[in-house]
Amino acid sequence: AFTVSQGPTSLAIERILLNKVKLTWLNSNSTLEKIIVERQLTNSDFEVITELPSSATQYTDENLLYNVKY
Question: In Å, how far from its chain's centre is CA 51?
């Protein structure tokens, strides 16, 4: 079992290319074990795309599909 903690704050998304975005955030919770990043296509379930160390403050999501809403 695990506990879902408060998520990051000040989440920002920067489009780098048509198929790539950079996520940045402030990590305001020092008790996290890891950060789980998820993605969701319109009308579907969330999927885990990566697990990061608790100290992470950014992630670049690559290989996004062009002209698809997430």
Answer: 9
The three state secondary structure string of the chain is CCCCCCCCEEEEEEEEECCEEEEEEECCCCCCCEEEEEEECCCCCEEEEEEEECCCCEEEECCCCCCCCC
pLDDT digits (tens, 9 = 90+) for 14-36: 999 889 999 999 987 777 888 99
User: pTM for this structure?
Assistant: 0.81
Write phi, then psi, for 42 (nearest 5 degrees).
Answer: -55, 135
C-alpha separations of 19 from 13, 14, 37, 44 in Å: 13, 11, 17, 19
Token couple for 47: 């999927």
